[in-house]
Amino acid sequence: MRNTVIIGGGAAGLMAAVSAAEKNKNCNITVIEKNSRPARKVMITGKGRCNITNNCDIDTLISSIPKNPRFLYSAFSAFSPQDVMTFFENAGVPLKTERGNRVFPQSDKAVDIVDALVNAVKRSGAKIINGTVSSVKAENGTVTGVKLENGDFIPCDSVVLATGGASYPLTGSTGDGYRIAKDLGHTVTELKPSLVPLECHEGFCTKLSGLSLKNVTLSIFESGKKKPIFKEMGEMLFTHFGISGPLVLSASSYMRYMGKKEYVAQIDLKPALSIDQLDNRILRDFHEMQNKDFANSLDKLLPKSLIPVIVNLSDIPADCKVNQISREMRQGLCSIIKGITLHITRPRPIEEAIITSGGVSVKEINPATMESKLLSGLFFAGEVIDVDALTGGFNLQIAFSTGYLAGQNI
For the domain that residue 242 is a member of, what is the CATH number? Predict the structure, then answer.
């Protein structure tokens, strides 16, 4: 009887176990998880609600992956978002699709997803044990077993490396898989934080800390380029260090040369209005309060905490009466409201990132099987691979699809 060891009991590893057990009835499958409970990171995804996938087609999936998207085509074809949804609903977890085609359990509880995965593994006949793998052993170009930190050796014919990335280390993602892959001769590309808040140069961000903006458009410009590398409407948040929220996290995925190139963010507070339409709106407000000071004239247009910042950026004196504000001054005000500029200094540390960008080079992995091109019997699944996606359930879909495909090909 063949033996398979899956290193990592997260989304990718648990799905790999279920898939392998389904395909290989005469195989002993062992998942080794160093945490006392599996899938710790799944528990905190989607703010504890668990956005398991995105209810979209494969082309949309591919377009939501900034780095190495074509590598995942076979995995997505083997186990699509619809397959993920069917899997969990068959496991007794009713689902719902929300804005942006994001899929959640109806209960809004990530624990239901984790329990469904763990129970599916147990039903499959695979087992989950607690332990930390120190190394994977190989002879004559093929896997022979894994060694644990306590000195135990588990012989096996195949290994799935599904250890996650280096983000959220408290969940167990401490980068162990990268070290193991390197020891086995694999290339690990530069690791960077992705889906991460951004620090900004402008001091007014601190004054706006806690302010949430909805239905705004965020654009990101790379130095030397006139066309934005990212532009989307949605929600974002000011923090004491800069900006965060769904729009910002997605934008960070496109900022691939942070530290080597400069990036500027622009926030359009009124994307539904053109400059002229916004000017007419402001004119109407000014007409109603023509004897008021400028600083007291924007209550209908902007959040209260944002008004002093906009007043300061506009260079219009705060005590200027609105009936004294010229068309040119209004035009300048409109331009600021349509494009608050922030200079990005750096991303927050990788420990605060949702996922890790970088990982085991896809050039060394067979995309049709997830098996190493360098070592027979070694497979990869999930965040340890050099692929990452935007927010919206796409990263968990990568985990499920690559885990499933690896399991099918053991």
Answer: 2.40.30
